[in-house]
């Protein structure tokens, strides 16, 4: 491959590749020109819209809320693993150890059953402002219903009904 390319030039709006004479067929141009633009240094988050809402710019969920969700999700998965592995472990013993109420442990545990796409959107901060741990706990078990319960538009692959 290196013998086929003589030079590559990256410009502001295009990339030019100069092929060596040995690989170019007779009558064809030695220069390949590809359109190109530098990617933006600012990553744009696409905020998930609420159902029935006009497409408009929304503010993303707060960083503090996102951090709280990530910590709660981590705890939920850790506690679920502990409950599954150790038959002597109970929600009551977790509550005592963690200094929380049993209700708090149960609500946090519900996050372990959240749709992966919804959890990913929350971790990436793509949910609208106003979403926090409290609003994301105790959702329906069916993933597509979780989106509906929150009033959010589910990703296209989750909207399709199984055949």
Q: How many angstroms does the end-to-end distance come to? A: 47 Å
How would you write the strand order of the largest sheet?
1-2-3
The count of domains is: 2
Percent helix among the residues? 25-40%
Class by helix and strand content?
alpha+beta
Radius of gyration: 25 Å
Q: State the CATH class of the largest domain.
A: Mainly Alpha
Seen as an oligomer or otherwise, the chain set is: single chain
Sheet-strand content, in percent, reads 5-15%
Mean pLDDT, rounded to whole units?
82
| Helical stretch tally | 7
How is the biggest beta sheet arranged? 3 strands, antiparallel
Count the strands? Answer: 3
CATH arch. level architecture of the largest domain? Orthogonal Bundle
Order of helices and strands: EEEHHHHHHH
Uncertain segments:
none
Which fold name corresponds to the CATH topology of the largest domain? Arc Repressor Mutant, subunit A
Q: Could you say which overall geometry the principal axes of the C-alpha atoms support? A: elongated
Q: Would you kindly provide a written description of the structure presented here, covering whatever features stand out?
A:
With 163 residues, the chain is an alpha+beta fold. The protein folds into 2 domains: 5-35, no CATH class; 63-152, Arc Repressor Mutant, subunit A (Orthogonal Bundle), CATH 1.10.10. Helix content is 39%, strand content 10%. The protein starts with a strand and ends with a helix. The mean pLDDT is 82.
Give the arrangement of secondary structure elements.
Elements: E1 5-10, E2 14-19, E3 31-35, H1 63-85, H2 91-98, H3 102-109, H4 116-123, H5 133-136, H6 143-150, H7 156-159
Antiparallel strand pairs: 1-2, 2-3
């Amino acid at each position: 491959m290196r013998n086929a390319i003589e030079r590559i030039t990256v410009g502001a709006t295009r990339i030019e590749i100069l092929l060596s004479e040995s690989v170019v067929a007779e009558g064809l141009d030695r220069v390949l020109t590809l359109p190109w633009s530098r990617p933006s240094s600012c990553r744009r988050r696409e905020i998930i819209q609420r159902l029935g809402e006009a497409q408009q710019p929304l503010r993303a969920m707060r960083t503090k809320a996102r951090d709280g969700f990530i910590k709660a999700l981590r705890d939920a998965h850790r506690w679920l693993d502990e409950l599954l592995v150790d038959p002597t472990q109970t929600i009551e013993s977790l509550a005592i150890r963690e200094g929380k109420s049993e209700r708090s442990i149960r609500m946090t545990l519900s996050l372990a059953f959240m749709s992966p796409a919804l959890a990913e959107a929350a971790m990436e901060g793509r949910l609208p402002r106003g979403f926090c741990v409290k609003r994301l706990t105790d959702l329906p078990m069916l993933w597509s219903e979780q989106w509906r319960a929150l009033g959010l538009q589910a990703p296209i692959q989750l909207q399709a009904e199984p055949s």
